[in-house]
Specification:
Layout lengths: L1 H27 L10 H29 L9 H23 L4 H10 L1 H18 L3 H7 L2 H6 L1 H16 L5 H22 L1 H5 L6
Helix pairs in contact: 1-3, 2-3, 2-8, 2-9, 3-5, 4-5, 5-8, 8-9
């Protein structure tokens, strides 16, 4: 079963992108029912939702590996992290392509005048650096600095949540949920590192 896990997770994580690619194709055929009266805003919202979900999932892989006593989850870390970067990049692409219409002077203005855009761009930049250094050659080249660099995924998670909280105007429920998830994962990683009892605790024992 474990040998099928990685291909299965790959297909499942790709699913949302394929679904929305199909919706966009349908829209080009004249069926805009799924995209509503403002398709660019709808796609920005949906891509942002999936971006932060994938980022939360990438943050959860290592804690789940420890808590479930499942070493095979290590094999999913790189793939899930790259998917997080992929979905965050799609969100950024929707913003630049559909909302700003590739006006990079407008992008520079948005980055300088809207702090929540700056936070989102900072999160994307961190994930870009992690994506381009996620491969074995980069890991060997960076040596002991590699782990230190890749802990930056937690910084990206915090920035992404702050980006979301800043955007939300009324219903903070979902944003606070993601904030709680990031906080819980950060606290668990700190406790796991410094407290032996936490390192020894697992939900399932062989």
């Amino acid at each position: 079963m474990q040998k099928f896990l990685k291909p299965l997770v790959f297909v499942v994580l790709l699913g949302p992108a394929l679904w929305w690619a199909y919706i966009i194709w349908r829209a080009y055929q004249g069926d805009v029912a799924y995209l509503g009266p403002d398709p660019p805003k709808m796609l920005e919202l949906v891509s942002g939702e999936w971006a932060i979900r994938m980022l939360m999932l990438s943050l959860a892989v290592t804690p789940l590996r420890y808590l479930l006593n499942a070493p095979y989850l290590w094999r999913l870390r790189r793939m899930v992290g790259l998917y997080a970067f992929f979905y965050v990049s799609l969100h950024f692409l929707v913003f630049v392509l559909l909302l700003l219409e590739l006006d990079f002077s407008a992008l520079a203005k948005e980055l300088s005048e809207r702090p929540y855009i700056t936070l989102g761009f900072m999160a994307w930049t961190i994930l870009f650096l992690l994506a381009v250094t996620s491969f074995n050659r980069a890991q060997r080249w960076l040596g002991r600095h590699w782990k230190r660099l890749h802990r930056g995924v937690y910084v990206a998670g915090v920035l992404a949540v702050m980006h979301l909280i800043w955007i939300v105007r009324s219903d903070f429920g979902e944003a606070l949920l993601y904030l709680a998830i990031v906080a819980a994962l950060l606290i668990y990683r700190a406790l796991h590192k410094f407290i032996p009892g936490v390192r020894q605790f697992v939900l399932f024992k062989p």
